[in-house]
Amino acid sequence: MTTFIWVAIIIIVLSIVGLVYRLVKGPTPSDRVVALDAIGVALICLVGLFSIIVDTSFFLDIILLLAILSFIGTIAFSKYIEKGDIITRDNSR
Amino acid sequence: MTILANILIIFFISLGVLFLVVAAIGLFRLPDLYTRAHAASKSATLGVMSILLGVFFHFWLMENHFNPTILLGVLFLFITGPVGGHIMSRSSYIAGVKPWAGTVRDDLKPEIERMKKEQNIK
């Protein structure tokens, strides 16, 4: 079982290397944001598998935290790419 | 019973690893931002949900520790993964990223032009 988890971790790390290639090379900034989002998702998987290996359940709160931070980062980057700023000024007041 | 639980955990984790590798190959090989966002949002979301289900079953069946935080994380990723991909590709279309040269039809373009015209009149 431990060997299986290690093999899964190694395969996920290799796929993270493939995502880092897209993060370095990607022609537009949007490509890099999509690759960062996928890297965050793969990092969540690594935290889950690593908590199986070290046999504690203290790391499992990090999963929800990483998911929320990755979503907020993607939304902020996409608002910046679309409009040029993240928090828009309210002109109606 | 332990063998059955092991089979369940190994099935879920290997399914998730397979989908993550498919997402990485898709981001490596596909020609265009929109196809890459398609691969990343769908396949990576399904992969991480399946791996987290495997981790949840491991802690529940092996260690008798029911952890609802993982289920909450699965639900959150199921909601926010496709929403993030959609908002990212929509904002990059508005910012002017061109689709792939072999694209046949573009239904969003007349809609965006109509929206810009209405905003200029108003």
Notes on the structure:
The complex is a heterodimer of chains A (93) and B (122). Helices cover 80% and strands 0% of the residues of chain A. Chain A is mostly helical and 93 residues long. Chain B has one domain (1-97). Chain B has helices spanning 2-29, 33-62, 68-94, 108-121. The chains are: A mainly alpha (93), B mainly alpha (122).
Oligomer: heterodimer
Percent of sequence in beta strands of chain A: under 5%
Query: Rounded to an integer, what's the Rg of chain A over CA atoms?
Result: 17 Å
Low-confidence stretches of chain B: none
Ends distance of chain A: 62 Å
**Main interface: chain pair and counts:** A-B, 44 and 52 residues
> Roughly how much helix do the residues of chain B carry, as a percent range?
over 70%
What would you call the structural class of chain B?
mainly alpha
Order of helices and strands of chain B: HHHH
Radius of gyration of chain B: 20 Å
Structural class of chain A: mainly alpha
Number of domains of chain A: 1
Helix fraction of chain A by DSSP (H/I, runs of at least 4):
over 70%
Number of beta strands of chain A: 0
Residue runs with pLDDT of under 50 for 5 or more positions of chain A = none
- Beta strand % of chain B: under 5%
Distance between the termini of chain B: 68 Å
